């Protein structure tokens, strides 16, 4: 059997036809254009799904289900996306709307939860019963796999580690609280800190790398400057990894997964990020006397959303 996986993001809708092993047979994407009303967006999702199935030369009756991964809070039971502020989706009946076009079971899940499922089925945590996947992007997303299943609480809203406090009364978070991990360890937070440092230290390499245009600063800028030996770049990266490690140590203390998988744009820094991160996490975990989880880079890349969403329909 085959499964449709849909990665519903703020920028693009990516749809893939996935086989039993989590391999993508065919995929396609289209801009989300979030300024539109949800019925139009869902119609695009359905039409693209039918196109991908047709392009793959697969019969609709060989497709078992459709899975949708999206940032925000899904009501998995009723197939409703309760809240996704960057899509301006509030209580959107995703399942019912999709089934107007395709008569298949429709499952929905949080983007980081499905990324965790994808890493666990076919990626960096393949074959492991217990893993945690953290995505470092616009926000900090998290998915916890326990005994092979993604844990999402009684109301499917659980596993939002981005919103655990690491600094009391710290930076303002988009969720309304202050000092959330996401406000320090997301790509957005790193960009904010890099801009601040660039303003304070106009002579630094951080400024030169963007020709003095602070709007060009992205999550790579501080890492690039640091790799070239720039002091400000190094300070930014050290500080960022420290905050990342604080939250990861909390995750280790709570779940003791066999592996922690780091995904999202920032994970592209690879060992330059992971080597100091492993050390800092180890120092912060409550005991060093036991075997501790390894920290690995995600393997599914941009396909994690599609594959994980597709796997929501697998028994
Ligand atoms: C936010 C939250 C999470 C999401 C995480 C990563 C919303 C809309 N999002 O913490 O549900 O998993 O961001 O999202 O409430 P991304 O946009 O960085 O992929
Ligand atoms: Zn928050």
From TrEMBL:
Q: Which GO terms describe its biological process?
A: glycolytic process
Q: Can you name one GO molecular function term for this protein? A: glucokinase activity
Output the Gene Ontology cellular-component terms: cytoplasm
Q: Under which name does UniProt file this protein? A: Glucokinase
SUPFAM superfamilies, per the entry? Actin-like ATPase domain (SSF53067)
Q: Which family does it belong to?
A: Belongs to the ROK (NagC/XylR) family.
Q: Which InterPro entries match?
A: ATPase_NBD, ROK, ROK_glcA
- Pfam families this protein is in? ROK
